[in-house]
Amino acid sequence: MNDQLVMTGIGLVIILVLTMGLHRWAGIGLGWQPVIAGIRAVLQLAVIALILQGVFSEPWTGALFVVLMMTVAALTAAGRLKELYRGRVAAIAGVVIAATISIALVLGLRMMGFEVRYVIAIGGIVIGNSMSGVTLTGRNFLRTSIAQRGEVEGWLALGATPLKAFRRISQESIREALIPSIDQTKSTGLVTLPGAFVGAIMGGASPVEAARFQVVVLITVIFAITVAGIIATRILATSPTIPVPAEQNSKEQESN
Question: What does the alpha-carbon distance between residue 159 and residue 254 come to, in Å, rounded to a whole number?
Answer without folding.
Answer: 32
